[in-house]
Design a protein that fits this description.
The protein is α/β, with parallel strands linked by helices and about 290 residues long. The chain has a single domain (about 1-285), classed as Rossmann fold, CATH 3.40.50. The protein has helices spanning about 15-35, 50-55, 70-80, 100-110, 115-130, 150-170, 175-180, 180-205, and strands at about 1-5, 5-10, 35-40, 60-65, 90, 145-150, 205-225, 230-235, 235-240, 255-270, 275-285. Strands 1, 2, 3, 4, 5, 6, 7, 8, 9, 10 and 11 form an eleven-stranded mixed sheet that branches. Helix 5 (about 115-130) runs parallel beside helix 8 (about 180-205). The longest helix has 25 residues, at about 180-205. The relative contact order is 0.16.
Length: about 290
């Protein structure tokens, strides 16, 4: 969904605020939660996670990610703490549990397919009809703090990209169908929204009574182009979530304690694009 018209970007007022803002708010959330057990879902390399602070604040910190290399890098960092301990426990796992369910069926659908668009329809139905099996801690305990930094919008993207890759391995000449097929776009939109809602419910099931949850994500995104004068411009800003406010995902009975937003300028060449500008929103909320 296009949010606004093209505009010029000034990098002077943005700076490197993303990591600093994330670490500050997660630290604040940890102070509100107190002690006990904490979890970081989709921790990655821990760039925007105050892992050392969490390890000193909580008796146990579960760190979960699907990327083995990122998890190993974070493990090495945690081992370098001035007072290393065994409070950090690492879990290599898919948060949604969907990849192992969907990938083999998707491969079989694509293998048997004759018509690309009919294949896409079948893959879309597979996505929307498969129930997630969300990760739970081995002891099925509940956390005083759950941290989800830039995870919500990636849940569907990770699964969808796996399915699209399987489709393109068989039908590489039909890459345009992924953006032009109305049926496919509708199915992946439905898949994304349903998965996001289910994940918000799952966070509640992971949390102890009066538990604290930190939720942040890239609500807005725009792709940046470099101008002749070495400035940056964009064709417009897109909404990556259901609405333009992250808090709209929350249930009426949740208590929002902190709500913030900031810009994240990320230089990463993608074809003709210089990089991306994200509009990040973050919420710290308390469960009843």
């Amino acid at each position: 969904m296009l949010r606004r018209e093209p505009f010029l970007i000034s990098t002077d007022s943005i700076g490197d605020t993303h990591v600093r803002s994330s670490i500050t708010l997660i630290t604040d959330a940890a102070e509100l939660a107190g002690s006990g057990q904490a979890a970081v879902l989709g921790c990655g390399r821990g760039t925007e996670i105050p892992a050392h602070h969490l390890s000193r604040t909580f008796d146990q910190v579960d760190l979960l990610d699907l990327n083995a290399d990122a998890l190993d890098a974070l493990k090495i960092e945690c081992q370098s703490f001035a007072e290393p301990d065994d409070s950090c426990i690492f879990h290599l796992a898919d948060i949604t549990g969907l990849i192992s369910q969907i990938e083999p069926i998707a491969r079989e659908i694509v293998r048997k397919a004759v018509h690309p668009l009919q294949c896409l329809d079948a893959l879309g139905l597979l996505l929307t009809s498969t129930a997630p099996k969300f990760w739970r801690p081995p002891g099925n305990y509940r956390y005083k703090l759950v941290v989800c930094s830039a995870v919500l919008t990636q849940l569907q993207a990770t699964v969808r990209k796996r399915v699209e890759s399987i489709f393109l391995n068989r039908f590489p000449e039909h890459i345009s169908a992924l953006s032009l097929s109305k049926s496919w776009r509708e199915q992946i939109w439905k898949f994304a929204r349903n998965l996001e809602d289910a994940f918000i419910n799952h966070l509640e099931s992971l949390s102890a009574p009066n538990g604290i949850i930190y939720l942040s994500d890239t609500v807005h995104v725009c792709w940046l182009l470099q101008t002749a004068s070495s400035g940056l411009t964009t064709e417009g800003s897109w909404i990556a979530t259901r609405t333009s406010r992250l808090a709209d995902y929350l249930r009426p009975w949740y208590e929002i304690v902190i709500e913030r937003e900031w810009s994240w300028l990320r230089r990463e060449q993608e074809g003709s694009y210089w990089g991306r500008l994200y509009g990040v929103q973050a919420i710290v909320y308390r469960l009843p």
